[in-house]
Amino acid sequence: MTSRQFLLIVAVAQGVLLVALVILIILNRWVRVRRSARLNPQRIELDGVMQRWSLGQAPSDEVLRALARLPVPVAIDGLVTWSARIGGERWQELARALESQWWARAVRADSRSARWWKRLDCARFLSVAATSRDIGRVLQLLRDHHPAVQLAAATTLERVGSSTLVTAALEQLPFLGPTVQAYYASVLKRARPAVLRHLQQLFRRLDDPRLPRLIEFAGRLEEPVLREGFTTLATHPQAEVRTQVARALGKFPHSESVAALGFLVEDEAWPVRAQATRSLGMIADPKSLPAVREALRDPEWWVRLRAGLALTRFGAAGRNALLEAEMGGHQEARDMAALILGLSPQALAEYAA
Amino acid sequence: MSELIRVTDVVILAYFLALNTFYALLLVLSIPEIWEQTRLAEDEDFQRLMQSDALPPITILVPAHNESATIEASVTAILTLEYRNFEVVVVNDGSKDDTLERLRHAFELYEVPRTYPETLSTCPVLAVYRSRTRTRLLVIDKENGGKADSLNAAINASRFPLVIAVDADTLIEPDALLRLTRPFLLGRQIAAVGGTVRVANGCTVKDGRVNDARVPRRFLPGIQVVEYLRAFLFGRLGWNRLGGSLVISGAFGLFRKEYLHAIGGYQTRSVVEDMDLVIRLHRHLRQHKIRYEIPFIPDPVAWTEVPESGRILARQRERWHRGLIAAMWQYKGMLFNPRYGRVGLIAMPFFTFGEMIAPLIEVMGYIVTALGLALGVVNTSFALLFLLVAWGYGMLLSLWAVVLEEVSFRRYGRLGDLIRLLCYGTLETFGYRQRTVWWRLKAFFTVFTLRQRWGEMTRKGFEDAGKQAAGSTSS
């Protein structure tokens, strides 16, 4: 083949592709316009039926018929939107009625689909329409390899009160990335009783590598029943566990918490000391003031910063401690006190956050 | 002589064939990427998730130098973004105009003591200000040191683990930050994320927001809309599947701060700091065997004002290409180096041989073809066929970018805008492309003589530009 022939073939192929692309653009516009012209009235109809059903003016059969007329993803969108507005027994009733619908059965079957977006659709559907019979399916979706599917499945925990699902989610929690972990935590908070039971069991496994992340999560729950577990773990050999314990105890203003934090404020690891100092500031028990004042002389800058900020929470006594330190002989404590006393209330609030 | 011309012609043909095949590969790879990204972007649960406490806190870094015309609108728009936890650090980099005064007046700034360690060294900071009306705002006034220096100063002052560099002349869409954090929410090992930058010229802008996206009627900004679509929608998306691009736009990119600290922040001597930063990130993470991704996601959008005059555009393109040459030269050790994985074996060679030397080859192609015609070595029909193929391919890529835009995000809804996009995509090849080749060629001569500087550009201010656009639309 000569180079001229080659170029000619390429030119013809390009010409065909160019024409095809222009046709594709025009077709795409046309299909979209037609689709939205067809779907918009159906969406409006669904909204109207849902509205009437929520007011008790329409039977659930009417809702089911309106949903069946829509393409599956649009029907799921509609369910997701309305589930936020209608809750409780009435929604459960609709979820149960949906079990017998052909399209809902097809969506459920997609939990095993090879295509991740089909599994995502299934997880989204189950997040608003799951019943106790879907536990196996949700469990499978929770363990899905696509993170978007996992996240959608985690939302189901809010609706289905199953200890199996809660346990599975809790087991998975420490292995997730920090942001996903925070999301899981926010979902798990809503399934509190089952979570608390399982957490108490997990606290007993002292050599479990997941312990720091579980304590971090447990601390966010601010549940008094867990406080005793935290204080027990204050002597754990792992610094990361002690740091998380110190963080969690700040949310429990109790004499035992103060005692444990008083112990942790002298820890050999500076992150533990910094966190314990911060937590003592959050509780602001006058008995712990000397320990916080002492932390202002810590060799580590971060501990001193935390101590300075903690002292601002002790009211007049803390402020006096800072003023004393500013005039005192300890160079580093003096610098830190000067820095803290120079901060505006707004800056202090931001540091505290 | 005639043999030399013939051989050169074949070499140039082979070069364009190889380059275009690679572009075709990017084009094919962009299809599954845009499909996946569109699915995720439309996912309602993600929207719900993004309203939750799980969102990582972000510091927005806004370097500003002589941005008096747009600074107030830009900062106001940034401060009202839909995101739970963020702060804004604006750095006035020794502006000669009244940028600082405008900020001081608009946000009731008051001076505060500096309370953060200077981890990255920068030009002296003159003062630090907080706002009485906007608690999330911190303004740093410093001596002029360039954009990279300003970004380093802002990183020093930032409190949060993720930082996003945003140009002061850039308008971020309200939900762009939410969308930009999607890869983090998917639990991926993200070192940095890039979003899409689009052309704001011609759009209607109100209160620092693009209310109505339009394709400009003026030729130069209009053609740049197509260029930006091409660069972002299929260029960078395709790179997601090839180990990540070497470029995250300096106007809109989210970075993990710990990695920025590890590589010493932005390099102040660099001509294009964004490319330099991303290459150094790749190098550092590969050298330390840290698992990472630097993806581009198309749905978070920032709008920027592009040059409307040929003179300023020429300067901008020359500077970009100068930066590319300097970066490729500086990091030549990564080229074909298996230690750097796909970055060393695919991305660096592509940017060196595909992007950097492309204007040289193209000009050589024009010269050799003209010479061949003059000497009778190449006949006219062959030369025209060659040009047709070379230019046709450019058109094909532009139209493909328009297709991707149409099937995914469709920011330009009007039929008139679509027709304009198609026209610009077609006309770009005739005249404009040759001008950009010339501007890029000049960079080879200036690369070792000019130092880095802020890309100076005359700003009209978004709202003024919007009004003008609206005026021109109605007239």
Greatest interface: A-B, 46 and 48 residues
Give the radius of gyration of chain B.
Answer: 23 Å
The percent range for helix content of chain A is over 70%
State the distance separating the first and last CA atoms of chain A. 72 Å
Give the radius of gyration of chain A: 29 Å
Domains counted in the coordinates of chain B: how many?
1
Broad structural category of chain A: mainly alpha
Detail the poorly predicted runs of chain B.
465-475
> Total helix count of chain B?
16
- Using DSSP, what is the number of strands of chain B? 12
Strand order of the largest sheet of chain B: 3-4-5-2-1-6-11-8-12-7
* Regions with little confidence, pLDDT below 50 for 5+ residues of chain A: none
Oligomer: heterodimer
Strand % of chain B is 5-15%
Mass-distribution shape of chain B: globular
How does this structure look, described?
The complex is a heterodimer of chains A (353) and B (475). Chain A has helices at residues 3-54, 60-69, 72-83, 88-98, 102-109, 116-129, 135-142, 147-155, 163-172, 178-188, 192-203, 211-221, 227-232, 239-249, 255-264, 270-283, 289-295, 301-311, 315-327, 331-341, 345-352. Chain A has 21 helices and no strands. The mean pLDDT of chain A is 88. Chain A is mostly helical. In chain A, helix 12 (211-221) packs parallel to helix 14 and helix 18 crosses helix 20 (331-341). With 475 residues, chain B is an alpha/beta fold. In chain B, the strands form two sheets. Chain B has a ten-stranded mixed β-sheet. In chain B, strands 9-10 form a two-stranded antiparallel ribbon. In chain B, strand 1, helix 3 (71-79) and strand 2 (86-93) form a beta-alpha-beta unit. The longest helix of chain B is centred in the N-terminal third of the chain and has 41 residues, at 2-42. The radius of gyration of chain B is 23 Å and the shape is globular.
